[in-house]
Amino acid sequence: MWVSDFPGARLHVVTGKGGTGKTTVAAALALAIAAGGKRVLLTEVEGRQGIAQLFDTAPLPYEERKVAVAPGGGDVYALAIDPEGALLDYLHMFYRLSPSGIPARTLRRMGAFEFATTVAPGLSDVLLTGKVKEAVIRKQKDGTPAYDAVVVDGPPTGRITRFLNISHEMGGLAKVGPIKNQSDNVMAVLRSAQTAVHLVTLLEEMPVQETLDGVAELTAAQLPVGGVIVNAVREPVLPAADLAAAEAGRLDVAALAAGLKEAGLEPDEALVSALASEAVDHAQRVALEERGRDSLGALQRPSYELPLLTQAVDLGSLYRLAELLREQGLA
Ligand SMILES: Nc1ncnc2c1ncn2[C@@H]1O[C@H](COP(=O)(O)OP(=O)(O)OP(=O)(O)O)[C@@H](O)[C@H]1O
Ligand SMILES: [Mg+2]
Known about the structure:
By secondary structure, this protein is of the alpha/beta class. It folds into 2 domains: 11-234 and 308-327, P-loop containing nucleotide triphosphate hydrolases (Rossmann fold), CATH 3.40.50.300; 237-299. It is built from 14 helices and 8 strands. The protein has an 8-stranded mixed β-sheet with strand order 3-4-2-5-1-6-7-8, sandwiched between helices. The protein starts with 10 loop residues before the first strand and ends with a helix. The mean pLDDT is 91. Bound molecules: adenosine-5'-triphosphate and magnesium ion.
């Protein structure tokens, strides 16, 4: 039977340095989990409409919509959560205030939302994570979970711990009462084995460093670190022995020229030396990537690699990335 590396996780939060592929990986992970007949909710919390762009649909309203069918028949729904929608939802759930009714409209007109988030900047995160948690624990009428899993395209590494560590954020503000209860309940889910926070990185110095720092911060806040997803991996184009020689500046230039001759080219000195210096650059990059892999390996977390795609990321490539995540056991 198929077992994923995170069998207990129903909430997958994807973070990583800006631009490393969070949105792409979150979408691929949602497809991977949905494969074979599951229902998965893919959410974003930063008001960027990245999911709609990726799935090439109109901007997502504050409403769960089906955006893709997974291989084998699962469904991926998407939701762009914004703090105002989440606040109205919250008032509806706890005070039976209709989101479209007059009180909600009045609140909006009075600027209640701006007021609340200005007084308590952390409130916005409590509302966003509260909505995520609601989707995780929501049941259908027959008592089964509404979603098998929720995947969050999360804030970048530099903000993820603050974003999830809401009890700390709210600590000074609400010591008792409904907001305190709400944030305690959300925190309990976020800290449980139901949650896994995955980090996306590239094999470059800055993203690797942010990943190491991010794991340390999440761990210190007792938030469950999931896997490390190394995105946009390039295969070395030279065999290991040549890489080592090139990096050490011991590239056999005569052999290179001979190889070019064999390939039917008439190499002049300029061509040979240009190629040799490119080989050195390549070898240095591969060596840097290896050092990145070593640092990430020291984290002792499950890790996954996705290739650098040569064309723009479309639905077809998301399916392919999803398949690779499944093969490697993330989903
Ligand atoms: N494996 C890959 N191969 C090639 N291109 C990729 C790959 N993964 C992501 N990309 C591209 O890199 C860019 C950044 O990816 P993405 O938007 O997923 O990153 P992000 O971390 O969500 O960025 P942001 O921090 O801006 O939200 C996009 O253009 C995406 O199509
Ligand atoms: Mg993004």
